[in-house]
Amino acid sequence: MPTPCRSVLLAAICLTASCLAEADVTVRFDHPEDFSDLSLSAGSPEKNTALLTQQIEGHLKWLGQQYLPKGDTVDIVITDIDMAGGFERWRIPDGMWTRIISDVYPPKIKLQYVWKDASGKIKGQQAELVTDLNYRSMVGYKQFPTQDSLRYEKALLQRWFRRAFAVDGKPLFEQGSSPQGSD
């Protein structure tokens, strides 16, 4: 007959083992102050950099839980971000806060990654420029609220992540599988 201490110990061991088996994504931003366009306004790009990088990191970690095989790890270094849209000060006087969404300004994310399996063996590594000239008609961006400043970038990363790492055939955008609450 198991004692309460053995049951607690067994539960702790099982919980630890299940945590170790989870997929893990680490994200590092290489000099975000030098990124092409990671800002909510044209006037003060550094003001929102921390908030935006935190949201992107949270989204990539969520994608890892959705698409990576258990036990795998992906280390991502983001070297540049150019958000969807642009600031056209000539179009709107004093429009420093107005981001114009146009086909002329697709989102671009320059990154490098190393993907390892549970034993530490490298499954893949690559440097990529992730972009989509047709981002405004891209499947999935509408799953994010219109007030989400990174909705095009998140949809782009979700599409890239699934293409690069998913092996289980999950649909690209499942109904109800949005990370909106995790950011």
The quaternary organization reads as single chain
Strand order across the largest sheet = 1-2-3-4
Please, what is the average pLDDT? Answer: 77
Beta percentage is: 15-25%
Order of helices and strands: HEHEEEH
Largest sheet: 4 strands, mixed
Write down the overall geometry: elongated
Instruction: Report how far the terminal alpha carbons are from each other.
Output: 45 Å
Structural class: alpha+beta
Whole-number count of domains: 1
What would the keywords be for this entry?
single chain, 183 residues, alpha+beta, four-stranded mixed β-sheet, 4 strands
Explain this structure.
This protein is of the alpha+beta class. It has one domain (23-182). It has three helices and four strands; from the N terminus they run H-E-H-E-E-E-H. The chain has helices at 4-20, 45-67, 151-165, and strands at residues 24-29, 73-82, 108-116, 122-131. A four-stranded mixed β-sheet has the order 1-2-3-4, covered by helices on one side. A hairpin with a 5-residue loop joins strand 3 and strand 4. It is elongated. The model is unreliable at 5-20 and 171-177 (pLDDT under 50).
